[in-house]
Amino acid sequence: MSTKTKKPNILWISLEDTSPRFGCYGDTLARTPNIDKLAEEGTIFNNAFSTSGVCAPSRSAIITGMYQTSIGTHHMRTEHTDPNTPELPTPYYAVPQAHVKTFTEYLRADGYFCTNNFKTDYQFEPPLTAWDENGMHAHWRNREPGQPFFSVFNPMLTHESGMWGDMVRNYIYKEETTDRPLTTDPNNVEVPPHLPDTENTRRALAKHYDNLAEVDEYVGQILRELEEDGLADNTIVFLWSDHGEGLPRAKRWPYDGGIRVPLIVRWPNVLERGGVSQQLVSMIDLGPTVLSLADSTRPYHLHGQPFIGDEAKQREYVFATRDRHDQAYDKVRAVRDKRFKYIRNYYPEKPYLLWTSFSHQHPAYQDLWKLKLSGQLNKDQQLFMQNKRPPEELYDCENDPHELNNIAANPLYHEDIERLRLELDAWCKEYDTWGDIPEAQMVETMWPGGLQPESAAPIFIPINENLPGMKPFNKASFQETTEIMLHSATQGASIAYTTNEGENVHWELYTGPIPLTKGTTTIRAKAIRIGYKDSEEVQAVFKLE
Questions:
Q1: Burial 144-181 (b: 16+ CB within 10 A, else e)
Q2: Structure confidence at residue 5 (pLDDT)
């Protein structure tokens, strides 16, 4: 029987910097009863992976359904200038190809009410046309009665900075107490073998478990609101993380610690309750999956594929990248199947630990350096502190989950590494569009002369039995049935419009000519393209007598 019998509501709960440290994934230290209950009512995906080990490149791939290297969003942090490295070609917003949209525009065009609360971090300013509501108070409850919704909530407390301070809490929850006592016993945490087993590392991990428990409470609140509104039975819930955990050799890296993420989907009466799936899923598949489940437009140019529903496909491989992170340039590409991970280092002469100042705040990083300087690192801890890297790395992730034993040169795995080399070569040829282009050259292409391009302001073209649509007007009166076409000369621009007055108005996505109703109608409009400066707001006044 087809699953497309009714437009479902869709809810995303998007975590930050989180590996599957939940009770439902077998972590006995986790305090995640609400997430565990969601898993009992849905299906756990054990092999879900982000396309990058850091948030913004990963989130840009998720929101567009396109690999970050293909649209120029692969370098981490482009929107500000670093005072220590002013020579970088920042600030800029990435300007993808003209046809690239946030996938939410396709949902909006098909009648979905789309909200985001509230993090974006896409490497470009979130387009006005992407969301009906985008902010701290965005919620499905603000839609028209009966309208299907796609709503995203982004609890941010598990960000890596929560392991050593309260940056996120102070930014978002200013009214709350920030000096919270540690609840998780540091003596009970399991320290990965490549990290220093010190008090600082244990306290950082314990703090992460505390933050996960707090996010779990947030998850419970969102799910209770769904129940209160009587929407749980017709809402597909996805819970996932934008990348893996914020630990050294995890965050910013394509090792499993950095890209393996939790993924739980509850789809009442369709997906198995308490199910466990071993299929490979890439986070780039999230958007195409939502479009498929909503029976919405799914453009051919999207790189992801549905992983559940009538159009679901099975993956053989997932891919991940590493490029410039903050101050430090790098280039690493990786491909993984269910068992093996192949990593290609394009700068084998470089140390693993490049200077990315933000990461040096992590207590585990600091203790790694202390142990290195005192000559106390053991073999596993030395892996990440080497002054050069192998050109290739191959790991048996089933038998070596921490990826400590590089078997790239082992003749027993010659066929596996050859197969993965070819897969990565093919992926790079198709999707690594900007990977070999110097960032400054890319930025000059996107922002000629260092100036952000600007969308051309819309024009208003009336069409009726006397006006075939040959000429724009900003003011006119009509007696016959009339529709107003909006047009921008900017290639790929979307148009947002409203007929309301004031500043805090709801902007509609223009999808076709606007029928005039009796009386006077004022139409305000802006043209929007990802990475471009929004056009000036223009307006036209029409009267239908």
A1: eeeebbbbbbbbbbbbbbbbbebebbeeeeeeeeeeee
A2: 54
Within 10 Å of residue 277's Cβ, how many Cβ atoms?
18
Residue type, 273: R
One-letter amino acid for residue 373 of the chain: L
Please confirm, yes or no, whether 428 is among the known catalytic residues.
no
Give dist(CA 380, CA 400) in Å, integer. Answer: 12
Separation between Cα atoms, residue 17 and residue 158, nearest integer Å: 6
Token readout for 81 is: 């200038």
> Is it the case that residue 55 has pLDDT exceeding 80?
yes
Confidence grade of residue 364 (pLDDT, cut at 50, 70, 90) = very high
* Mean pLDDT calculated for residue range 335-348: 98
Give mean pLDDT, residues 28-45. Answer: 98
Neighbours of 451 (CB within 10 A): 8
Distance CA 255, CA 53 (A): 8
CA nearest neighbour of 12 among 286, 243, 308, 277: 286
**DSSP labels for 356-415?**
-GGGGGSHHHHHHHHHHHTT---HHHHGGG-SS--SEEEEETTT-TT-----TT-GGGHH
pLDDT (tens digit per residue) in 187-237? 999 999 999 999 999 999 999 999 999 999 999 999 999 999 999 999 999
298-317 b/e (C-beta count within 10 Å ≥ 16 → b): beeebbbbbbbbebeeebeb
Q: Tell me which residue has tokens 């799914």.
A: 298
pLDDT in the model for residue 474: 98
Q: Which position among 55, 114, 397, 428 bears the catalytic label?
A: 55
Neighbours of 86 (CB within 10 A): 8
Q: Kindly report the three-state secondary structure assignment for every residue of 158-171.
A: CCHHHHCCCHHHHH
CB 258 within 8 A of CB 250: yes
Identify whether the C-beta of residue 144 lies closer than 8 Å to the C-beta of residue 180.
no
* Maximal CA-CA distance, the chain: 87
Contact between 535 and 510 (Cβ < 8 Å)? no
Angstrom distance (rounded) from CA 145 to CA 147? 6
How far apart (Å, rounded) are the C-alpha atoms in residues 334 and 311? 27
- Give me the residues paired with residue 15 across strands: 241
Q: Which residues face 335 on adjacent strands? A: 319, 342
Q: Are 514 and 523 in contact (CB under 8 A)?
A: yes
CA distance 15 to 216: 10
Inter-axis angle of helices 363-373 and 199-228, to 10 degrees?
Answer: 160
Whether 281 contacts 48, CB under 8 Å: yes
Residue showing tokens 């075939």: 468
- Neighbouring-strand partners of residue 264: 44, 239
